[in-house]
Amino acid sequence: MLVKPLVNPAVGENEASIIQQSQQGDAEAFRQLYRRYQAKVRSTLYQLCGQHQLDDLVQEVFFKVWKGLPKLRNHNFFATWLYRITWNVAQDARKQLGRSRQRIHQPSSALADNEGEISLQLSRPEDSPDLLQLHYQDLVQQGLATLSFEHRTVLVLHDLEDLPQKTIAEVLNLPGGTIKSRLFYARRAMREFLQQQGVQDVF
User: Fold this and answer.
1) pLDDT at residue 7 in the model
2) Which residue ranges does the record assign to the RNA polymerase sigma-70 region domain (predicted)?
3) Which one, of 136, 172, 157, 154, lies nearest residue 44 by Cα?
């Protein structure tokens, strides 16, 4: 199975203090926020956008966080707000890549989903990875590439990033029923894809 980043939406007293200090322009406090959340942001962007310009996208997210923090009124919504910014950056990257593809011929070996969305690179191996684990991660990335960006987003946020459906609805500003429907479809499509590859009892 893929390693799932831990998500703790509740803001503790210490974290609330760090957020408040960051809002007041404390660079060291903001560095602490970055260290706490950059792995989650990077993981989400990687699942949605692949390796292409990943470092730049992560930096863009935290630049927007730094600029927007003074406007955040409720610290308890920081994680939801952060995921919304991450989603917006991923969506903008998708649009920019779509425009680039109209001007530049892409190599035929690039992975692309059935709606011409962002191609995904295969998972990067971790230190001393188990070959079976690495093979499964590769299959998951290929399966995600067969989904539309909208369905992929819901599946990534829910099943790979452990966000509850209610939070995803808030991040994407969509009704809960829409999130539930997209998740059902995405899971079914992923399950069918992986079963075709010989992987059972997943999603």
Assistant:
1) 42
2) 33-99, 144-192
3) 157
Instruction: Say how far apart CA 103 and CA 97 lie, in whole Å.
Output: 10
Work out the number of other CB atoms within 10 angstroms of the CB of residue 100.
10
Residue 70 — φ and ψ, nearest 5°?
A: -60, -20
Give the residue from 98, 115, 107 showing the smallest Cα distance to 189.
115
Query: 144: part of which helix (H) or strand (E)?
Result: helix 131-144
Q: What six digits make up the tokens of 70? A: 């003074």
151: helix, coil or strand?
helix
**How far are the Cα atoms of 8, 52, 124, 167 from residue 85, in angstroms, in the given order?**
17, 18, 25, 14
Question: Which of 203, 153, 139 has the alpha carbon at shortest distance from 182?
Answer: 153
d(CA 122, CA 109): 12
Rounded distance between C-alpha atoms, residue 154 and residue 163, angstroms: 9
Average pLDDT (83-107) is 76
Band of pLDDT at residue 188, cut at 50, 70 and 90: very high
The least confident of 14-23, 39-48, 116-125, 160-169 is 116-125
pLDDT, average across residues 29-39: 95
